Amino acid sequence: KAGVTQTPRYLIKTRGQQVTLSCSPISGHRSVSWYQQTPGQGLQFLFEYFSETQRNKGNFPGRFSGRQFSNSRSEMNVSTLELGDSALYLCASSSGGRASTDTQYFGPGTRLTVL
Amino acid sequence: QKEVEQNSGPLSVPEGAIASLNCTYSDRGSQSFFWYRQYSGKSPELIMFIYSNGDKEDGRFTAQLNKASQYVSLLIRDSQPSDSATYLCAVNWNQGGKLIFGQGTELSVKP
Questions:
Q1: Nearest-CA neighbor of B106 among B42, B26, B37, B59?
Q2: How far does B79 lie from chain A, in Å, by closest CA?
């Protein structure tokens, strides 16, 4: 089975621009969760999508948004980029069951640099 | 506020020794605990998860959970230089795909 894929792998943007990142989950997985990883804050949960609906949301400003398509692929968008948005953005897919043991598998990440 | 705490390290052990990585969490209730390994420049990869009190073994890895003490640990037996990485503890509080991560512990295994 193919793993989680993310595109693009690297992005360089300037302040004020917007960016869209894409994630394709493992075949058969219906849940996609997004995380931001920075050296200072570690791995922080952004949001989760399941069956095209946002099921969970972290504590990030509204500039961060996402969506999920009927084939479970997900995109996240960051508008009005700030320098502090420079980070590794990771998506993780899981089957989507409500059990707390539902296991997440991470993609390779998108490295975003904001200049 | 649900929090997960780990010693940042670095934790240095000689090759062949047992590495012990610890994690505490702030909130009780039904939850599961995941250990991920992250090599520098790579994404996290799952090692194992545990949700019942006691020990769970998988090869050289053993996860230990004590819900009364709000404590979970990962033991790595016969540590190898290839185990050198950052180990992340994550907790799921029955919230679907929302994991709360600790800051990670950097492990260095010296030949």
A1: B37
A2: 24
Distance CA A21, CA A107 (A): 12
Q: Cβ separation of B32 and A100 shorter than 8 Å?
A: yes
Name the residue among B30, B97, B100 with its Cβ closest to that of A104. B97
Using CA atoms, how far apart are residues B99 and A111, in angstroms rounded to an integer? 21
The 10 Å Cβ neighbour count of residue A23 is 27
In sequence order, the 6+-apart residues with CB closer than 8 A to the CB of B100 are A45, B2, B3, B4, B25, B90, B91, B92, B93
CB atoms within 10 A of CB B107: 22
Amino acid at A20: T
DSSP bridge pairs for B100: B91
How many angstroms away from the CA of B93 is the closest CA of chain A?
7
**Which residues in chain B have Cβ-Cβ distances shorter than 8 Å to A90?**
43-44
Phi, psi for residue A105 in degrees, rounded to 5: -120, 130
Q: What is the pLDDT of residues A56-92, one digit of tens each?
A: 999 999 999 999 999 999 999 999 999 999 999 999 9
Q: What is the rounded end-to-end Cα distance, in angstroms, of chain B?
A: 41
- A5-51 pLDDT tens trace: 999 999 999 999 999 999 999 999 999 999 999 999 999 999 999 99
